[in-house]
């Protein structure tokens, strides 16, 4: 913990004071991108995108899940933290991009196939029920090994969460008008490579210098 306290001191004495005018300019919250990713400690959205404070509005939860939209007052309390953050980023902050970023070695995508891992975590178990549509999609692909099943779950989960995201009318409307761009990313922790989802051919392609969109 002392390392974290020392880090806070160093940030103020060096980072902040060396770029004081930049930080003083952050009085308003004007991010251009909503970045939805996992709470996994190995994922650092700003580092992955080389972005500065003020550029990303970040939503993090176990498994980078997006609860599907439900139209009814009785449903509004379900998963309110994530729902409200999506709503705020679109309606108030007016972000122009959304990135849904999954990753390799995802504990959520592993534990759903091992119920014993969730026996003493009822809240996590309830939250991961949102992965059920993804699990059904993977079953239809008939993976021949456990390793491939988990890998496919990680990839299919990104596609499913984009589908869930577009179930929100205020997201779909802006997306259809071309005012909002949506991307699906898969970060391979071991290799450092990031794949981008192609909406046309439904494939993930590496983000590279001469073809950043993976088209």
From TrEMBL:
GO terms for molecular function: carbonate dehydratase activity; zinc ion binding. SUPFAM superfamilies: beta-carbonic anhydrase, cab. Gene3D superfamilies: Carbonic anhydrase. Binds 1 zinc ion per subunit. It is an enzyme of class 4 (lyase). The keyword Nucleotide-binding does not apply. It catalyses: hydrogencarbonate + H(+) = CO2 + H2O. Its EC number is 4.2.1.1. Keywords: Lyase, Metal-binding, Zinc. Its cofactor is Zn(2+). Zn(2+) binds at residues 38, 40, 103, 106. Belongs to the beta-class carbonic anhydrase family. This is carbonic anhydrase. The lineage of its organism: Bacteria, Pseudomonadati, Campylobacterota, Epsilonproteobacteria, Campylobacterales.
């Amino acid at each position: 913990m002392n390392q974290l306290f020392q880090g806070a001191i160093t940030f103020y004495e060096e980072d902040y004071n060396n770029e004081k005018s930049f930080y003083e300019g952050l009085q308003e919250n004007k991010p251009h991108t909503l970045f939805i990713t996992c709470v996994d400690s190995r994922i650092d959205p700003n580092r992955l995108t080389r972005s500065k404070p003020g550029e990303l509005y970040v939503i993090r939860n176990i498994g980078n899940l997006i609860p599907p939209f439900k139209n009814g007052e009785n449903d509004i309390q379900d998963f309110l933290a994530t729902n409200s953050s999506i709503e705020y980023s679109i309606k108030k902050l007016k972000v122009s991009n959304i990135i849904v970023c999954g990753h390799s070695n995802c504990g959520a995508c592993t534990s759903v196939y091992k119920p014993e891992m969730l026996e003493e975590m009822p809240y996590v178990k309830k939250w991961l029920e949102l992965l059920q549509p993804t699990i059904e999609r993977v079953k239809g692909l008939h993976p021949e090994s456990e390793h491939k099943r988990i890998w496919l779950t990680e990839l299919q989960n990104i596609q499913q969460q984009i589908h869930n995201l577009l179930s929100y009318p205020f997201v779909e409307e802006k997306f259809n008008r071309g005012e909002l761009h949506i991307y699906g990313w898969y970060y391979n922790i071991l290799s450092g490579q990031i794949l981008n989802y192609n909406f046309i051919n439904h494939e993930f392609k590496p983000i590279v210098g001469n073809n950043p969109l993976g088209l």
